[in-house]
């Protein structure tokens, strides 16, 4: 009789455990919300993650997504019934139709530890390939070029000339597949960063171009961007001499709200400029590196305050 009672008790306990979700496992339900319309070449995605299982779901991470990056941090885990949002910013595809992007979510869901979610991204229409051009650091007197393929509808011969004299657009012969393009040429005549948006005509939009000219001294990075809020350190600027003359700095001029300190790395060859911003006092302007006499300009480094996309004049 005792054996029968014990068996019944075990069965009852098992039933109660099952009814309370004790035998359930974590389960992920991922739902992609409609993507935002492309704006300034990017589009935003939101994915709702919900644990519909009976155990805590561990979120191990998000796999690499083509042309997308997460803009928020996910919690380490979701208890049963809890949910979280995954926010992504993606480069809008150069396509007239939507392009599918696969998002891989790694969790402790035993049924599907690598959940693959296919999400459509609205395209911005045909455009230049690549969609932006970076020509890097180029010595004054030298030249760098980059070829860009354009949609067949673009009238290359009628493209507007760049307003910056260091940049030029040169039509290229048609390729075997019928595609045409232009060559972006950068021939700096002075040191400093060049930013431009080359007009490729209606329906294509501007082509962003960034290049840096240097003459005797190279600054890395070549410009300073002040954070939105708060005091704090800015990225240090490394100054490297590129010719045989020793690097001798007599004085440094800073815009309002910026302070700096020179630290020698390699005597006569390399110096690090350590910068700090004083919060709201920081203003757009330029850092001017002056030679041993305290008057001869060696280099001008633009400083952009938050929300300012202009490049101060040298």
Q: How many discrete domains? A: 3
So what's the CATH class of the largest domain?
Mainly Beta
What's the CATH topology label of the largest domain? Immunoglobulin-like
- Mean pLDDT equals 81
Along the chain, the helix and strand elements come as HEEEEEEEEEEEEEEEEEEEEEEE
Shape descriptor: flat
**In percent, how helical is the residue content?**
under 10%
- How would a crystallographer describe the biggest sheet? 5 strands, antiparallel
Whole-number radius of gyration?
29 Å
Q: Quick one: CATH superfamily of the largest domain?
A: Immunoglobulins
Number of strands: 23
Give the low-pLDDT segments.
Answer: 9-23
Strand percentage: over 45%
Structural class, from helix and strand content? mainly beta
Measured between the Cα atoms of the first and last residue, the distance is 98 Å
Tell me the number of helical segments per DSSP (H or I, 4 or more residues long). 1
Name of the CATH architecture of the largest domain: Sandwich
Question: In words, what does this structure look like?
Answer:
- With about 325 residues, the protein is mostly beta strands.
- It is about 5% helix and about 45% strand.
- It has one helix at about 1-20, and strands spanning about 30, 40-50, 55-60, 70, 75-80, 85-90, 100-105, 115-120, 135-140, 145-150, 165-170, 180-185, 190-200, 205-215, 215-220, 225, 230-235, 235-240, 250-255, 260-265, 270-275, 285-290, 295-305.
- The strands form 6 sheets. Strands 15, 17, 18, 20 and 21 form a 5-stranded antiparallel beta sheet that branches. Strands 1-2-6-4 form a 4-stranded antiparallel beta sheet, with no helix packed on it. A 4-stranded antiparallel beta sheet has the order 5-3-7-8, with no helix packed on it.
